[in-house]
Specification:
It is a single chain. The chain is an all-alpha fold. The protein has a single domain, classed as Tetracycline Repressor, domain 2 (Orthogonal Bundle). The chain contains 10 helices and no strands. It is elongated, with a radius of gyration of 19 Å. The model has no long low-confidence stretch (mean pLDDT about 85). InterPro entries: Homeodomain-like_sf, HTH-type_Tx_Regulator, HTH_TetR, Tet_transcr_reg_TetR-rel_C_sf. This is TetR/AcrR family transcriptional regulator. Keywords: DNA-binding.
Length: about 210
């Protein structure tokens, strides 16, 4: 992730996890501006000065978290069974179920991710908007490289379907945050199944329905 984080990544894994968990909880519970680095340090059991020894400022910590969490999610999602599935929608559902395991380890990760998709603060807004689009492009190339796209109708672009499902999920999650509700992962998974079935009817050739 860059030489600037070598000091942090040289820490024992347990210490890294404590700091990451504290930061995810704090950023997940607050918007970027309100998130307190003092709270992060306190929850992690370190001083604020030590936190800034590892990360130059709050922005660097925030952006590091996004990259680190994406790596964790990918590690959970892509296993041996993953490569055995070549159906687009089955793979989407499998990935979603695997991500649930990640959420159990980091209860505030979902809220943190949703806030990151809708950044408002000037320190991160443009950087995160660009990062989000790059992640969608990367996800398509990495996660669906082995999919049988021959099941799709000729007039349907699979990448467009990915974008639509991601946008719907993000919109649903952002709405829950706007209503000041904690994210109900089971409810989200139910909605996700409905979206996948709907888009399958739209996207697949009749013989694959």
């Amino acid at each position: 992730m860059g030489d600037q984080f070598k000091k942090f990544e040289s820490l024992p894994e347990e210490r890294q996890e404590a700091i990451i968990s504290a930061a995810v909880e704090t950023f997940g519970s607050n918007d970027y501006k309100s998130a307190s680095t003092e709270d992060i340090a306190r929850k992690a059991g370190i001083s604020k000065g030590l936190l800034f020894f590892y990360f130059k400022n709050k922005r660097d910590l925030y952006l590091y978290l996004m990259e680190r969490l994406m790596e964790k999610v990918e590690g959970f999602v892509i296993d041996d069974d993953y490569w055995e599935i070549d159906d687009f929608f089955e793979l989407f559902r499998y990935a979603a179920e695997r991500k649930r395991d990640t959420l159990e380890r980091f209860p505030y990760m979902l809220e943190f991710s949703v806030r990151a998709f809708y950044p408002q603060h000037k320190d991160i807004k443009h950087t995160m908007n660009d990062w989000t689009q790059r992640q969608i492009d990367y996800m398509f190339e990495r996660y669906f490289s082995h999919v049988n796209f021959g099941k799709f109708r000729d007039d349907v672009d699979p990448k467009y379907v990915v974008n639509m499902i991601v946008w719907m999920a993000d919109g649903y999650l952002h709405q829950q945050l706007a209503l000041r509700k904690r994210i109900d992962v089971d409810a989200l998974m139910d909605e996700f199944a409905v979206w996948c079935n709907m888009f399958k009817q739209y996207a697949y050739k009749e013989e694959y329905l």
